[in-house]
Design brief:
- With 76 residues, this protein is α+β, with helices and mostly antiparallel strands.
- It has a single domain, classed as Pemi-like Protein 1, Chain: D (Ribbon).
- 36% of the residues lie in helices and 22% in strands.
- Strands 1-2 form a two-stranded antiparallel ribbon.
- It is extended.
- This is AbrB/MazE/SpoVT family DNA-binding domain-containing protein.
- GO terms for molecular function: DNA binding.
- Pfam families: MazE_antitoxin (PF04014).
Length: 76
């Protein structure tokens, strides 16, 4: 079962950088050099939510969604 929860509150420094707390990085198995996509959700034209997704997982999601569409286009 999946769930959403507030894991931590972080501050943004003057350069726009944030630090993910160590315990969250460890639980998420985020290592130095990992690539994360920042995904935004909008409501009423304003960003209301930001999520981090591993680029490799995002690539898989995109391929699973777009793959059949692209295959269908080339079949026509």
């Amino acid at each position: 079962m999946s769930s959403c929860r507030v894991e931590s509150i972080v501050s943004v420094d003057e350069r726009g950088q944030m630090v993910l707390p160590k315990d969250i990085r460890e639980r998420a198995k985020i290592r130095p050099g990992d690539k994360l996509a920042v995904v935004s959700m909008e409501k009423d034209g304003k960003i209301c939510c930001l999520s981090l997704i591993r680029v490799k997982e995002l690539e898989g999601m995109v391929k699973s969604v777009l793959g059949p569409v692209i295959d269908d286009i080339f079949k026509k």
